[in-house]
Amino acid sequence: MNKKRFSQLLATCLLGTTILAGCGGGASTSTPAPAGGGEAQQSAGGEITAKIGVVSFLSGTGAAYGEAQKAGLELALAELNEANKGKLKIELQMEDSGGKKESAINAVNKLINQDNVVAIIGPTLSGEMFAAGPVANEAETPIFGISNTAEGINDIGEYVFRNSLPESIAIPTAMKAAQEKKGFKKAAFIYAANDDFSVSGFKTMKATAEQMGLENLGEATFSNGDVDFSAQLTKIKELNPDVLLVSALYKEGSLVVKKARELGITATIIGGNGFNNPQVFEIAGDAAEGLIVATPFSPEKQDEKVQTFVKAFEAKYGKKPDQFAAQAYDGLYIIAQSLLAAGKADRNALRDQLAQLKDFQGVSGKLSFDEKRTPVGEAVVVEVKGGKFVPF
Amino acid sequence: MDLLNPYNLQVITFIVLNGILAISIYITLMTGQLSLGHAGFMSIGAYTASILTKQADLPLFAALLLGALAAGLIALLIGAPTLKLHGLYLAIATLGFGEVVRVIMLNMEITNGALGLTGLKSIGNTLYEWQKAIGVSAQSVGVSVMQMKALLTLFFLVLLFAVILFLTLRLNRSRIGRAFEAIKADETAAKAMGLQISYYKMLAFIIGSVLAGFCGGLFAHITTTVTPDDFNYHKVVEILSFAVIGGSEIVWGPLFGALLLTSLPELLRSLAEYKMIMYGAIMVLVMAFRPHGLIAADTFQKLFRRRSKQASAAKKEEF
Amino acid sequence: MRWFNLFWQQLANGLIVGSTYSLIALGYTLIFGVLGIINMAHGQIFIFGSLVGLALMTSTDLPLPVAFVVAIVVSAILGIILEYTALRPLRKKNVPHLASLISTIGFATLVEEGMHKLFGADSRSFPEVFGGKVFDLGIMQIRGVDLLIIGISLVLMFVLHFWITRTKLGKAIRATAENSDTASILGINTNLVIVLTVMIASGLGGIAGMMIGMTYSALIPSMGLTLGFKGLAVLILGGVGSIPGAMVCGVLLGVIEVFAVAYGDSSYRDAVAFGLIILILLIRPQGLFGSKA
Question: Are A353 and A324 in the same domain?
Answer without folding.
Answer: yes
